[in-house]
Write a structure and sequence with these properties.
alpha/beta, 7-stranded mixed beta sheet, 3-stranded antiparallel beta sheet, about 15% strand, binds pyridoxal-5'-phosphate
């Protein structure tokens, strides 16, 4: 059994993907070819935003946002301490200071009251300027944007949604990628919407910011291709990856339905035994991960391994526990995140998991 079975997905989409790839090989426009604009249009429609700007990967997508927003030295950017490293890394890369915030133990997402406490601490200390919040849709569940956007307004901060895992999730009718002032996603192969290499995108309704981002992803180009008006990056999505993503995006709604069916089967099997992942009323998860927690996690994972079932710990170390951030001041308690890092483990989750596989996972865990 695979943790995420990309080969099974390929078997399902093979002829469509092959056709798309052949079209690109025939027209030969490998950089910013027609599939890139077509994908940007489809992504914008799906997410429900005016501008979608594809780029090299999900980390670049975040970095491009911080560059376009002019965030740098002396600025404080708030981010959850329980996330993938890239969410915090880009803050340091921009020369700004990451301020780590605790999570809500029920959703694993940024805790609004911890966020407010951290913002007030920075305001009181006065040595950094509070600038932005990078909120992460961890494991596929959108963060609490109604609360986060309220705090951002009150304290005049910009919200960046890191929807690398959340793409496909929803709050009410609003899709992940449409929250905050600007949002990012990753098309790393294992994400809910992945390509066959690296890829990413930025989403926004801000026309000026979108133009700025389009310039930054091609060396800070001006309206004349050979006149560079700012320092940028070389961060474009390959046409071949865009072609593959067009087929994968078309299959996403059905895949999300299947992920939800797997999650429901897991819920039913584990509700008595474990704390199952909470999806608050009105929200939908894209189930990037299905995560359980237990103080006996190692025993459960060993039992699964005995039966040939893979399980993975996302994440064993919080951001404030990383060597590179060891000197950073912690301004608020991060105990919920620290406990989660000790207890969480994620189960096989993908749209092509067979009912028999799901039964095997359930039986193996229940017998432990
Ligand atoms: C994967 C991921 C990223 C980075 O995406 P890449 O495409 O691998 O650069 C950023 N944030 C989160 C939460 C992620 O899971």
């Amino acid at each position: 059994m695979q943790f995420i079975d990309l080969a099974a997905q390929y078997r399902h989409l093979e002829s469509n993907i092959q056709q798309r790839i052949n079209t690109v090989l025939n027209h030969g426009q490998y950089i910013l070819g027609p599939e890139v604009s077509e994908l940007e249009e489809r992504l914008g429609e799906y997410v429900g935003v005016r501008h979608s700007i594809t780029c090299g990967n999900g980390t670049d997508a975040l970095q491009l946002c911080l560059m376009a927003l002019g965030i740098g030295p002396g600025d404080a950017v708030f981010c959850p301490t329980f996330t993938f490293f890239a969410s915090a890394e880009v803050i340091g890369l921009a020369g700004a200071t990451p301020v780590f915030v605790d999570i809500d133990p029920a959703t694993y997402n940024l805790c609004p009251s911890s966020l407010e406490h951290a913002i007030e601490q920075v305001e009181t200390n006065g040595d950094l300027k509070p600038k932005a919040i990078i909120a992460v849709d961890l494991f596929g569940l959108p963060a609490d944007y109604p609360a986060i956007e309220g705090l951002a307004k009150k304290h005049q901060l910009t919200v960046i949604e890191d929807a690398a895992q959340g793409f496909g999730g929803q709050i009410g009718e609003r899709r992940a990628g449409s929250f905050g002032h600007v949002a990012t996603t990753s098309f790393f192969p294992a994400k809910p919407l992945g390509c066959y290499g690296d890829g990413g995108a930025v989403f926004t309704n801000d026309d000026e910011l979108a133009a700025h981002l389009r310039s930054l992803r091609v060396h800070g180009k001006g309206s004349d291709k050979y006149d560079n008006v700012r320092i940028g990056l070389n961060s474009r999505l390959d046409t071949l990856q865009a072609a593959i993503l067009l087929e994968k995006l078309a299959a996403l709604p059905q895949e999300l339905q299947r992920r939800n069916e797997v999650a429901s089967a897991y819920h039913e099997a584990f509700a008595e035994l474990f704390e199952i992942p909470l999806v608050p009323n009105g929200m939908q998860s894209s189930w990037a991960q299905y995560t359980l927690r237990s103080t006996a996690r190692d025993q459960f994972m060993l039992k699964l391994k005995d039966k040939g079932i893979p399980s993975v710990v996302y994440y064993a170390k919080c951001m404030h526990q990383q060597t590179v951030f060891a000197e950073n001041d912690t301004l608020t308690s991060l105990s919920n995140a620290e406990a989660a890092a000790q207890q969480v483990f994620s189960l096989p989750m993908h749209p092509y998991l067979q009912p028999a596989d799901v039964e095997n996972v359930c039986a193996a865990l229940l017998s432990a």
